[in-house]
Design goal:
Helices cover 38% and strands 13% of the residues. By secondary structure, the chain is α/β, with parallel strands linked by helices. It has a single domain, classed as Metal-dependent hydrolases (TIM Barrel, Alpha-Beta Barrel), CATH 3.20.20.140.
Length: 307
Amino acid sequence: MIFDAHCDVLYKMWLNENISFVDSEILHINYENLVFAGGKVQCFAIYIPESVRFNDRFNVALEMIDIFYERVLKLNPKLKLVLEKRDILKLKDDEIGAILTLEGCDAIGHDIVKLKTLFRLGVRSIGLTWNYANAVADGALENRNGGLSNFGKEVVELNNQLNIWTDVSHLGEASFWDTIGIAKFPIASHSNAYSLFHHPRNLKDDQIKAIIQKNGVIGITFVPYFLSEDYHNVHIKDVMNHIDYICSLGAEKNIGLGSDFDGIDDMVKGLENYRCYEMLIIELQKHFSDEQISRICYQNFVDHFPK
């Protein structure tokens, strides 16, 4: 079984209203691919591109949520909305859980009511930034490297009260440390190890250890330019290197998968779409026990899902 903590299917479907989630070959993740590869829980990110005018971003978030309910869930009845951990635990053998997440708080501006509204519409993980600054925090590519704003602290505290994840992927370092200090349910949905490849989106060793200490989870991502300097020639072994390294820091119970499928154009060789998860599992079997593989692929994110 696979729990994938990040994909950008909704963004692709927002761009193209003719894409069918059932079987579209345009998508890395579609329903048929999930079934084929043993998908059990899939997180669907709401990502608002920088090209959208600031005042329109909340409306675009609502449009993507509508796509999630109307074009993903409604047309695929074996996909089940996940709002609480018990929704995962009660999934039948032929059912797949679907979780709405927010990738960056640009959509809410300075308005906490908008965040509450997204929660009421089903969002269960809040990524504070994309790569740049917003009213909440500075992102990983913001040179200023400021931390959380006062409003950002309010957002994290609300996440704590609502029992939902606060996602530290995409945060700048100062924002990360401010967040990890107060978040009750931190995750990094799609980040890799900075020690293996020095990219600002990757996590340094002390950040990885801090997430472990806060009982969070790190989702290894398949973005080639987070894996290796030679990102045009990246293979499954490069993904394995990051899994091995983060596990070596004590993360055996705090590591999972966050592919970023449908959010990338360049692909890891052998991981071109969701069906290729079976190839990753074959590679994992060379290095880990069945129990460890179950934790990496599924159980760790389930165990750390709030409530």
